[in-house]
Amino acid sequence: MNNSLLDSRRPSSEPESRVSAPQRHAKPFNLTRWVGATLVIFWLLVAIFGPMLAPHPVGALVADKIYSGASAAFPLGTDYLGRDMLSRILTGARYTVGLALIAALLSSLIGASLGMLAALAPRWLDESVSRLNDALISIPSKMLALVMVSAFGASIPLLILTAVISYAPGAFRISRSLAANIATLEYVQVARTRGEGKLYIAAVEVLPNMFHPVLTDMGMRFVFIVLLLSGMSFLGLGVQPPMADLGSLVRENIGGLSQGALAVIGPALAIGTLTIGANLLIDSLSANRGQQGE
Amino acid sequence: MNNSIFKIVLGRLSSGVSTLLIVSLVIFAITALLPGDAAQQILGQFATPEQVAALRIQLGLDQPAPLRYLSWLGGLLSGDLGQSVSNAMPVSELMAGRLPNSLLLAGITTVIAVPIALLLGIASAMCRDRLLDRILNVCTLSMVAVPEFLVATLAVLIFAVHLGWLPALSYVSTVEGVGDFIRIYAMPVLTLCAVLVAQMARMTRAAIINQLDSPYIEMARLKGIGPLRRVLNHALPNALGPIANAVALSLSYLLGGVIIVETIFNYPGIAGLMVDAVANRDLALVQACAMLFCAAYLVLVLIADLCAILSNPRLRHQ
Amino acid sequence: MTNKKNPPNILSESEQSARIHEAMRRGMSRRDALKTFGVAGLFAASTGGLLGSSLGYASEGTSGTPKRGGRIRVAAHAASTSDTLDPAKGSTAIDYARHEMFYNGLTEFDERLIPQPSLAEHFVTSDGGTTWLFTLRRGVTFHDGKPLSAADVVFSIARHKDPDTGSKAMSLATQIADVKALGSQQVQITLNSPNIELPAILAVSHMKIVPEGTVDFSKGIGTGPFRCQEFSPGVRSIGVRNDNYWREGRPYLDEIEMVGISDEPSRVNALLSGDVQLINAVYGRSAERIELSTGHAVKSVNSGNYTDLVMRVDQEPTSRPAFVEAMKYLFDREQIKWAVFRNYAEIANDHPIAPSNPYFFADLPQRPYDPDRARHLLKQAGVEGARLPVVASPAADGSEDIAVLLQQSAQQAGLNLTINRVPSDGYWSNHWMKHPLGFGNINPRPTANILLSQFFQSSAPWNESGWKNEQFDQLLTLSRAEPDQAVRKQMYADMQTLIHEHCGIGIPVFINTIDGRDKRLKGYDRTIPLGGFMGYTFAEHVWWDDA
């Protein structure tokens, strides 16, 4: 899970041109995008306003029945202690959306900038950064999370840091390959012979051409970080109680699965719609720009 | 051509050694940051200070950290992975007991997941933006989006508890015959496939579509070559490099990343071994596992690159 | 069956010291004690009673006639590469259960936790608990064929005193001054000070007897009912019936395989799907699920396991008595019992002696849930409206959920608790007893004296809150040498009151240990209140009945 889908372009394997192809599948109305955008906006709104809308305090025992089904008082049922699931999801979404969004953005930002610099930097620097990167990629992310939380305790910044250390190397890999590919293309060579500085080349010639693959990659990274958070809850790590991110909500109520409890289904659906929405939106944006169709 | 492949392999081997060295340093550094040490972990909640002191000396934990690292490294160079401090068994013996299980699970999953992923990816790419593609897209995304432990637990509830078709636990030691083998591996492999097929299929689709957009495919289309041949004979060989890389990365996950599947199905693999090792502050064992994961990752990526080179005529003649 | 009758465990009345009489004057009457016990007290032997009869080996209750044969698979809640067959190092349920399969102790506990003869055929103290003589059972052999001798016992007991052994029972063993063999069948143990509970200490699983000079414990060579056929730490172990077992007719099963499944829902699923026939550490929520299955049953025992709030006296603001008292009033014990443990728990009263313990002081008034009173006390302590972190961890059973409920009730009293959950990894060495406000978890101890000595005596290394009370320490020391049951009982009542009122720990409930089993597994009706798996001893007592 540590690995991006797109960690694949190595210059040695794909020297062929990456010039944009004409877009042949433009559509007047893009359903995918609308579905994606709606879901994303919905979850962003929940993340911002959810805690205010929660009918009950997130930690309060309000029901005398656990794992109950939908009712007027508890539209999404109750959890393993008898707390209101709707309130818990409304509050928990902020953690999942916020943490995953920040961590995915940071991973891609750090990975992409380092990747681009490595591709343009002298060989020794490129080599050493790449080696370190390989080393980090090969450490399983859940193991890293386990060690980090044991060593430093579970705080929000630490969770983000852990996710970034786990996922920035993947972003680095794809960005470096993309940048190295682009750097061999004619127009970059032309700029070089023109005597343009490295920073100029990076910012003006290389960056715009890697934007979409990096964006797509970020979409998958977002999903993986959401899943890493839920995987961490499996190992007993993660957001501090009484709060819980969506993955932890699934995890803590897993005992209710045998009776088909809403307490499991609700947060699982929430994760699904959030991640699918985010990726549909990104997919459609990339496709529309007609870049590389990823 | 053989010469260039030889060169690549040699180059990778030398850079691989430095990567492994970095991994060992990183692992050593972060495990040194962990609170508590092996002596405390072994003696547990109710240890007395003199016991902890005695055990530290016994285990050599009273030595300064850099010295311990160097002595571990020295041992490694002479082929000795060291001893597990938590049960005094040689690390190599512990690993030997688990590694075949992990490799077997990874192998079966690979054999099943890769063809399915390729098939789905290719089908999706060929029907790009049509209904099938969209359905497959949402399906694969949903599969990625469900937490692994939920897939696994749900599978156990349905197939083991309610239907009683499959065992809830995967006992590798009791395999008798092919039927038994299938029953035992069905659910862990299913769970892992759910995670991996989606990832790999999405990548395959992206790589092929990327090729379908290039001018030479356009040329082939104009020449009147049918869509199936265009994809299989022209796009796929060129897309094999990125696909092989994506597959390699997904597969490297199958050794170290499957802790949840190992836990739920009680499968004695190498990921669980490393989690135990971290919990016990069993440094030699942690290091050995990390080395193994890193080596596996490097080998897989190397194989993927070789695949790419062999499949691509232009690269072959470079 | 083969238990021979014991000679009296000599504690002559004439040897009772003046101290004891003094304690008796302030204590409860003998009549009260007898009424409460309904039986002849914990140390029946001291009045010449027969120990052998109470073990109940001859009949197995309502389960019918034992059958021979069959194999079962058992899943415990944890297994790791640190699993060990060295009895001295046992630390988890799966270790203890294996040690009970492969080894025997000099003594063993019965259902009332009274130590009964096992490898020691009888034991006697001649001077009120300082010098003890253990006579070994004849004709017992280890799994490798070597006969049991006094030298093995000396080795097995003495090794606990050596820090290099890494024994989990070292703190108990420090009171042993000397162990020596008198001939091949007798062992003499001398203590630093009298302790009439030595037979109970020798019954704990760490004190099991291994062959003299054992260095490699991975073969599990002992005298126990099963022989170790396979042992892979963290994976599984297989024990096969020891046909030469000294207790005739035992055990019944041919083979027991033990594995660990750390994920509770998976453990329950494995039981319900028939992959395993016995599991431990079931949550209250899942117990209902197991009961609903026609082929399965749960066994729930309250052994006095507790998760407690630790308030350190050496840190602020937990050093303030009013604050400590306020926190104790903030436990909504009924709610904790219901919500966290699904009623598989018993209300506790901020002292560690469980209702099942013979020394439980029932007349101590129960501390209620009273946020108003707590608010008042918090004001008095000067921490009204404060914001305080409380440390919880999955390592201390249920502590995260208890913390959440405590947080809710603290709000009512105007105290803002923030929960700091830390991983179970490294919890005991790095967090436990290190924060002003945190949680601990104490497993059942075989005797009240061991419990109080280890966790409440001023000098105890695991005195969780750092509580120091001279009166308590004196009572504890006196009680060890006190042969009169009634006097002892009163001493324990006083100690419970002291802890209830002054000590910096809050104990909301005693948590039941719940096992789940296949109903075809019979003979599972003994209750040894030490933990799950019938106090870890199930292997010797259960049989498989397919009919």
Automatic annotation (TrEMBL), chain A:
It is found in: Cell membrane. InterPro entries: BP-dependent_transpt_permease (IPR050366), MetI-like (IPR000515), MetI-like_sf (IPR035906). The chain crosses the membrane at residues 34-54, 66-83, 95-124, 144-168, 222-240, 260-282. GO terms for cellular component: DNA-directed RNA polymerase complex. It is a multi-pass membrane protein. Keywords: Cell membrane, DNA-directed RNA polymerase, Membrane, Transcription, Transmembrane, Transmembrane helix, Transport. Residues 7-17 have a biased composition (Basic and acidic residues). Residues 1-22 are annotated as: Disordered. Belongs to the binding-protein-dependent transport system permease family. The keyword Cell membrane applies. Residues 93-286 form the ABC transmembrane type-1 domain. Pfam families: BPD_transp_1. This is DNA-directed RNA polymerase subunit alpha.
TrEMBL record, chain B:
Keywords: Cell membrane, Membrane, Transmembrane, Transmembrane helix, Transport. Pfam families: BPD_transp_1 (PF00528), BPD_transp_1_N (PF19300). Its main location: membrane. It is a multi-pass membrane protein. The keyword Cell membrane applies. The chain crosses the membrane at residues 12-34, 103-123, 135-161, 181-201, 239-265, 285-310. Residues 99-304 form the ABC transmembrane type-1 domain. It is found in: Cell membrane. SUPFAM superfamilies: MetI-like (SSF161098). Belongs to the binding-protein-dependent transport system permease family. This is Peptide ABC transporter permease. It comes from Litchfieldella qijiaojingensis. The lineage of its organism: Bacteria, Pseudomonadati, Pseudomonadota, Gammaproteobacteria, Oceanospirillales.
From TrEMBL, chain C:
Keywords: Membrane, Transmembrane, Transmembrane helix. The keyword GTP-binding does not apply. InterPro entries: Peptide/Ni-bd (IPR030678), SBP_5 (IPR039424), SBP_5_dom (IPR000914), TAT_signal (IPR006311). Pfam families: SBP_bac_5 (PF00496). Residues 115-447 form the Solute-binding protein family domain. The chain crosses the membrane at residues 34-58. This is ABC transporter substrate-binding protein. It comes from Litchfieldella qijiaojingensis.
